[in-house]
Amino acid sequence: MSSQDIPEENLPAEQESAAGEVADERNPFADPGLPPHEPRIQDIDERAAKRSERTVALLFTLSMLAAVGFIASYLAIPVDKSIYVFPLGHVSALNFALGLTLGVALFAIGAGAVHWARTLMSDVEVADERHPIEASPEVKAKVMADFRQGAKESAIGRRKLIRTTMFGALTVVPLSSLFLLGGLGPKPGTKLRHTAWRNGKLLVNMNTNQPMRPSDVAVGSLTFAKPEGLEEHDEEFQNEIAKAALMLVRLEPVDIKDKKELEWSHEGIVAYSKICTHVGCPISLYEQQTHHVLCPCHQSTFDLSDGARVIFGPAGHALPQLRIGVNADGYLEALGDFEEPVGPAFWERG
């Protein structure tokens, strides 16, 4: 657009350069002053300003639409669906859609703000003298006056279309973050308090994958077991074994000090959770003479002859015991689930 298309009253008046000092031998670091301000086309032509306003509004609207697309993609696209995207290859359709829509939403807000600042907000350079750190009443009044002047020059009060679409974008886009919380999965409910052990579940040796008889557990030995029916190829195997892993130790009945432990054992065979109550490490070290088991991660030590109570280390409470017995076929079986949640103590407060 040439200056001939702009109303004459909108053309800027001739401006003189800001007064400055001239560098010489006595003053080599003279302040040259500010160059004269050159108005933009939007400053002198309202039609150009309207075009910029519509561009900014379009970017904010695009941001809102992309945010809505993010939410719709999260709700509509299955987690296991994949698509081919060149040159990435086969990717998750959900992840691709979420990344694309959220990226567009954030980019459009940023681009709209930058275009607004570069074309419609005031670009006049103002030099301000340094002032003491402590703000005087005069300085505070000046700051507020500058703020009001800046708000006025931003044209946010006059450019209603920009203001409305900007507030819409800033309202809709953050909603997408709320839906990201759903990606954490379903609420755990009470499933952390229960394991795969049930009344009548056989104890299966982790090494042989065979049901166990009392004769399979020798005095002084440490044996690991899992619930009947839990196989390594199962989709939920890792999640379930992390709660149901069991260790068996055979003690002389006279060495068992805790009355409940003796009642829940069978012929001196005691069954305790293998998961340490500190941070959930698997316990694997057994001291035959003292009947102590040791967690290798942080050295929490439990006394299996006295209710698996903690005698050393950072663990918060004793290991949960599983009540066991023998079925009609002579195999060891569980007589229920653990009485308390296994693993770290914070599950008890969950």
TrEMBL record:
Localisation per UniProt entry: Cell membrane
Keywords: 2Fe-2S, Cell membrane, Disulfide bond, Electron transport, Iron, Iron-sulfur, Membrane, Metal-binding, Oxidoreductase, Respiratory chain, Transmembrane, Transmembrane helix, Transport
Membrane topology: Multi-pass membrane protein
Domain Rieske: 238-333
Transmembrane segments: 56-77, 97-117, 166-185
Region annotation (Disordered) ranges: 1-40
Described function: Iron-sulfur subunit of the cytochrome bc1 complex, an essential component of the respiratory electron transport chain required for ATP synthesis. The bc1 complex catalyzes the oxidation of menaquinol and the reduction of cytochrome c in the respiratory chain. The bc1 complex operates through a Q-cycle mechanism that couples electron transfer to generation of the proton gradient that drives ATP synthesis.
Entry similarity comment: Belongs to the Rieske iron-sulfur protein family.
PANTHER family on file: CYTOCHROME B-C1 COMPLEX SUBUNIT RIESKE, MITOCHONDRIAL
Protein name: Cytochrome bc1 complex Rieske iron-sulfur subunit
Organism: Streptomyces macrolidinus
